[in-house]
């Protein structure tokens, strides 16, 4: 076996073999392109690999993507989107320095050779044989241009991109053949212009104009010598020579280009030396197109529209087909986004949660009965910088979101709906102790049962020790009593809840199946804000669930013609009876009037909703609705690491975060602005009897108006309830009790005089 020389190079035998191999390859290439060295027209002869008549004519004009415009519901522009961030410019609008720099570093003999540089091939073959590797290429600018056309046609399909760039003899031959045709039909200047407009310069910039704006915030025609040299150097390896991420490597590459220009006589050595001493002088700017430029914080909604397009079969039978239409562009997409609602959501978010906070918030508003998404926003802006993200915190993972967040007690109304729809009265009462073991067994779907470990039963408790029953559904919902809802789901079984959730479009954000366990009643399955907002819209629309939609219409311009495209429509179906929906609405109206959600209640119109806070304060929610709008607000750490304990959010310190004190006010402000000027509509409420009050535990010392001070009294069903007909007893007062018109046994009521009885429960 031949030995390497001591210096590490190839032995004479290896060198000869290597040179012979690449020479054979060169011969194969020359054979593959027939006679271009003698006469390019030889390729049109019968029997060639592929006749010129079969070559695609679109190589004359690259199939560059067109602009797509996304509009809100009123026709206002949200954003313009390109599959490639590119602005095409004429050669006269490109700095002469740039033209010279790209030729110098990529194809110094560009103006001396044809489509194929035979001298360059031989030089590269010799140099590569000497180095024992591939240290120099031989592709001309024309060949590189053709390859970029193939890449452009491949779009974002990784398989097609790989095919367009694979280093095979067949692809090289095809590339050379097309290069010959392009040289004949376009000429050197037009090819250079097209090349500079199509090539990739890194940092999402395609074409020299976009690259000039990205790195220097100036037009390509204004590029200085050193700036042009930097951009020209990037082309060979945009990631390696990225000046934003590796200034030292980019500087070395720029100086290589400058020296090459001096060696070729494009500039003097003095000019090159002076330019080498300058800094890179970067002045980066954000992309001027794409969802990152969306107005009113609608970048994530813009991205959701894109996801809808790429995932819905109505736009193409395969994902590849849909991507091709999207990349081709020329679309005008009118969406469901209400500009007033969107502005209100973003304004509320900005007031309550800072983008630099340890936690984030996301909010989504929808229209009941239509499924239209009216607003979608979050505190961390759409972008690539610090405190920015490209993850849409409002939607499911399959649509560009995360894995979701536990909705906590905002899931309880779904349990209530399942129970009521199945025949459980809204007056159902349970003992609802402060703490208890999970009931076991509990029936699940397919006739099975969930069973807890009898040797190590799982315990659950309410938020406060003062929360213990007995409770009926109305009070348990207002107070968000965990033990009540676990007792309820153990009675009706888990399957009705899973079925009701499905009818309401409620699914896990990560796409997994719902886990069947009694804890589902407490909101342990991760959901997205859009899912929860649309589910509550079902209550607002009196039991009709409508799938969410974001697109109203699409037109596409191809050449000078415009055509309309079909768009997905919302599908509405009955999830529950009107009576069930109205009953749940009545329960949730009580939450914002007398329960945990009072800080979220709207002052100028009827509203209903539910708070939710998860174990360890990883997430807090408020989900609510009026008759004509529903919305969900989530606050938490998207990475599920930061507990919301002893935390400052939006400049406000919290020992513990609750759904009522942070998501609630965000929801209230967002809805107030979104509904301003809209009709005030009423709910269809159901009379739910309160039933007998539970025995009081307080010492009701007070005048019956402001409540007692707590303590322990004796006997009676009601304690410290009234003082001459006024409310009283307990911390937040009891309820008015009318003077009875029938005989009442002694000691049935305690402390009816001056409130000196067994204090009332918290209201």
Structure description:
The protein is of the alpha+beta class and 763 residues long. The chain contains 21 helices and 24 strands. A hairpin with a 2-residue loop joins strand 17 and strand 18. The protein starts with 11 loop residues before the first helix and ends in a 13-residue tail after the last strand.
Features:
disordered C terminus, five-stranded mixed β-sheet, 763 residues, disordered N terminus, elongated, 34% helix, 21 helices, alpha+beta, five-stranded antiparallel β-sheet, 24 strands
Briefly, what is this?
The chain is an alpha+beta fold and 763 residues long.
Number of helices, counting only DSSP H or I runs of 4 residues or more: 21
Question: What order do the strands of the largest sheet run in, or round the barrel if closed?
Answer: 2-1-3-13-14
Work out the helicity level.
25-40%
The tally of strands reads 24
What is the typical, i.e. mean, pLDDT? 83
The low-confidence runs, each spanning 5 or more residues with pLDDT under 50, are 1-53, 694-763
Shape: elongated
What is the CA-atom radius of gyration, in angstroms? 35 Å
Gap from first CA to last CA: 93 Å
Assembly category: single chain
Q: What can be said about the biggest beta sheet? A: 5 strands, mixed
Strand content: 5-15%
What structural class do you assign from the helix and strand content? alpha+beta
């Amino acid at each position: 076996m031949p030995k390497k020389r001591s210096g590490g190079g190839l032995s004479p035998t290896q060198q000869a073999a290597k040179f012979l191999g690449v020479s054979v390859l060169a011969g194969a290439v020359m054979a593959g392109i027939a006679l271009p060295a003698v006469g390019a027209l030889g390729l049109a002869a019968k029997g060639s690999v592929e006749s010129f008549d079969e070559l695609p004519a679109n190589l004359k004009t690259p199939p560059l993507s067109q602009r797509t415009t996304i509009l809100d519901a009123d026709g206002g522009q949200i954003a313009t989107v390109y599959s490639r961030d590119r602005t095409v410019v004429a050669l006269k609008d490109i700095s002469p320095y740039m033209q010279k720099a790209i030729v110098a570093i990529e194809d110094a003999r560009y103006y001396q050779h044809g489509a194929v540089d035979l001298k360059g091939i031989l030089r590269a073959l010799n140099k590569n044989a000497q180095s024992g590797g591939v240290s120099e290429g031989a592709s001309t600018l024309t060949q590189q241009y053709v390859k970029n056309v193939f890449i452009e046609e491949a779009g974002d399909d990784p398989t097609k991109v790989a095919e367009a760039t694979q280093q095979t003899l067949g692809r090289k031959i095809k590339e050379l053949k097309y290069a010959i045709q392009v040289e004949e039909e376009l000429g050197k200047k037009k090819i250079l212009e097209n090349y500079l407009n199509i090539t990739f310069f890194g940092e999402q910039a395609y074409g020299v104009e976009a690259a000039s704006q990205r790195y220097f915030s100036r037009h390509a025609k204004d590029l200085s010598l050193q700036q042009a040299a930097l951009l020209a150097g990037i082309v060979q390896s945009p990631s390696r020579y990225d000046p934003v991420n590796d200034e030292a490597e980019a500087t070395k590459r720029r100086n290589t280009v400058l020296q090459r220009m001096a060696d070729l006589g494009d500039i003097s050595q003095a000019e090159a030396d002076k330019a080498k001493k300058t800094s890179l002088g970067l002045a980066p700017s954000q992309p001027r197109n794409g969802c990152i430029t969306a107005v009113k914080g609608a970048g994530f909604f813009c991205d959701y529209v894109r996801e809808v397009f790429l995932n819905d079969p109505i736009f193409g039978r395969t994902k590849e087909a849909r991507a091709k239409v999207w990349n081709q562009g020329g679309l005008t997409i009118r969406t469901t986004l209400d500009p007033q609602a969107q502005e209100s959501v973003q304004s509320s978010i900005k007031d309550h949660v800072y983008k630099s906070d340890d936690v984030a918030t996301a909010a989504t508003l929808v229209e009941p009965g239509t499924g239209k998404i009216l607003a979608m926003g979050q505190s961390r802006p759409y972008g690539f910088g610090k405190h920015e993200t490209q993850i849409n915190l409002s939607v499911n993972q399959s649509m560009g979101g995360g894995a979701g967040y536990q909705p906590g007690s905002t899931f309880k109304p779904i349990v209530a709906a399942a129970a009521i729809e199945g025949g459980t009265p809204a007056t159902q009462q349970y003992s609802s102790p402060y703490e208890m073991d999970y009931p076991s067994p509990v029936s699940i779907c397919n006739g099975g049962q969930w069973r807890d470990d009898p040797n190590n039963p799982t315990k659950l408790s309410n938020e406060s020790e003062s929360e213990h029953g007995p409770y009926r559904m109305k009070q348990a919902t207002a107070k968000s009593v965990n033990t009540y809802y676990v007792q309820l789901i153990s009675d009706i079984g888990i399957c009705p809840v899973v079925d009701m959730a499905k009818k309401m479009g409620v699914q896990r954000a990560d796409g997994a199946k719902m886990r069947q366990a009694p804890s589902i009643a407490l909101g342990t399955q991760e959901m997205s804000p859009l899912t929860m907002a649309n589910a509550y819209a079902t209550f607002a629309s009196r039991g009709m669930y409508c799938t969410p939609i974001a697109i109203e219409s699409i037109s596409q311009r191809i050449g000078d013609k415009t055509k309309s495209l079909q768009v997905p429509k919302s599908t509405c179906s009955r999830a529950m009876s009107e009576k069930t929906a109205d009953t749940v609405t009545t329960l949730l109206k009580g939450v914002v009037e007398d329960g945990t959600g009072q800080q979220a209640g709207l002052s100028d119109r009827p509203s209903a909703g539910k708070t939710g806070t998860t174990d360890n304060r990883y997430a807090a929610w408020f989900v609510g609705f009026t008759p004509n709008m529903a919305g969900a607000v989530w606050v938490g750490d998207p990475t599920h690491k930061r507990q919301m304990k002893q935390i400052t959010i939006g400049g406000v310190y919290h020992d513990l975060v609750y759904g009522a004190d942070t998501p609630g006010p965000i929801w209230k402000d967002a809805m107030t602005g979104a509904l301003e000027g809209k009709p005030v509509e009423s709910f269809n409420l159901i009379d739910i009897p309160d039933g007998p009050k539970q025995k009081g535990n307080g010492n009701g010392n007070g005048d019956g108006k402001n409540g007692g001070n707590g303590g322990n009294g004796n006997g009676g069903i009601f304690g410290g309830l009234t003082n001459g007909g006024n409310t009283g007893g307990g911390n937040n007062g009891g309820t008015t009790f009318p003077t009875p018109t029938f005989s009442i046994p002694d000691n049935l009521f305690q402390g009816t005089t001056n409130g000196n009885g067994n204090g009332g429960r918290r209201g």
